[in-house]
Amino acid sequence: MSSPTYHVDRGPLAKDELAALVARNIPDGSFVNLGIGQPTTVADHLSPEQGVVLHTENGMLGMGRAAVGDEIDPDLINAGKIPVIETPGAAYFHHADSFAMMRGGHLDVCVLGAFQVSVNGDLANWHTGAPDAIPAVGGAMDLAIGARQVFVMMSLFTKTGESKLVERCSYPLTGVNCVTTVFTNHAIFDLSPHGARVRAAYGISADELRVRTGLILP
Amino acid sequence: MIAHYRDQGGADEAVADVPDGATVLIGGFGSAGQPVELIDALRRQGAKELVVVNNNAGNGDHGLAALLAAGQVAKIICSFPRQVDSWIFDDLYRSGRVQLEVVPQGTLAERMRAAGAGIGGFYCPTGVGTPLAQGKEARTIDGRDYLLELPLPGDYALIKAHRADRMGNLVYRKTARNFGPVMATAAATTIVQVGQVVATGALDPEAVVTPSIYVDRVVCQGQTGPEGGAQ
């Protein structure tokens, strides 16, 4: 594996730079599910030449951009319940089929947000564990274990500076050993059962990354 | 099962026999595909202590949310109750007036599929190693870990389709299809709200999504006629 590249002559990635970077890492012709929130913005950076087909778990392949004006149809929404449009070649199917596509390993990539990811690929993104929080899982667990590659897209640090890439998740898990790559504003990490490896870093040195995450990062 | 569904007239007649304590599968993903007319009829009918299965737990103040607000639901089985507009459920849950069983979305669909397909349970990889694995039998098959998930049948299904023919064959519209085809198979009695009823033979058999064998009652909210309408 090639050694990591530390881009220290610049700041961390802005949100749209991060989304563009994730988009560039999606192989041409992939079937892809983009999670709710920040991952949705990856769609804005996919070029038509990439030939990526978007899956939305409420029952559609070939999902297009957000609908505007007269295009808005209450029967045509994405998993975030936002009205969208269909693209040529789109297909509709029911929920059991939609999740069979995931569990059956037919989706190439999903991009999810996260509260925490552990260095061996455990994902926590559905529940903070707070006693008064109402648990809501949606399709997060199905996506986590279903897609062949699971990309997480998140800020590396919380607002109070704690690393969201951790040795062991403290929040309730969504899936075990499932995350393959973590894209953050400060660095990209490739994960495996053997741990995390830095692929590239932005606006942060190797030493600072180790200190601020508290992780052993080869 | 009768081969030709009986015309039930309005939504009120269609849900009249739903008893207290029934398990009711209610279609829809948010508002798309939610059979609001049938839910409103169930609210007027007044059955209590219902167990409701839906992806969500109501949006805003209408449809499923209004059924919850009326105090008719003892338990909701769903994947994603918490939403920006789920205030009615949130209040009921926090004050202990409704029970909640959270099920991963795909497992929810597959449990109903199993019920409709005569499957006694299935080993599912979703949820392994998470809090939702608690109490479930685990098994490793070919090196992969699974949880035993059990079928989820309903006494009634209330779903929405786009169009029915007079036998009860159904087609859906775009992502409003969502849980409809699966719920139709999983309930003892399936009641469908459609926008249009067309003549038998007017639906392309290749395009039928839910065959009439799964459909017991159809309530038409729009035009109905023996000659059918545009396809």
UniProtKB/TrEMBL annotation, chain A:
One Pfam family this sequence matches: CoA_trans
Signal peptide limits: none
InterPro entries, sorted: 3-oxoacid_CoA-transf_B, CoA_trans_fam_I, NagB/RpiA_transferase-like
SMART domains from the UniProt entry: CoA_trans (SM00882)
MF annotations from Gene Ontology: CoA-transferase activity
Keywords from the named record: Transferase
Family as reported in the entry's similarity comment: Belongs to the 3-oxoacid CoA-transferase subunit B family.
PANTHER family assigned: KETOACID-COENZYME A TRANSFERASE, SUCCINYL-COA:3-KETOACID COENZYME A TRANSFERASE SUBUNIT B-RELATED
Protein's UniProt name: 3-oxoacid CoA-transferase subunit B
Native species: Leekyejoonella antrihumi
UniProtKB/TrEMBL annotation, chain B:
Molecular-function GO term, any one: CoA-transferase activity
Record's signal peptide: none
Top-level division of the source organism's lineage: Bacteria
Sorted UniProt keywords: Transferase
Keyword Aminoacyl-tRNA synthetase: no
SUPFAM superfamilies given in the database record: NagB/RpiA/CoA transferase-like (SSF100950)
Keyword Methyltransferase: no
Homology family: Belongs to the 3-oxoacid CoA-transferase subunit A family.
Name of the protein in question: 3-oxoacid CoA-transferase subunit A
Organism per entry: Leekyejoonella antrihumi
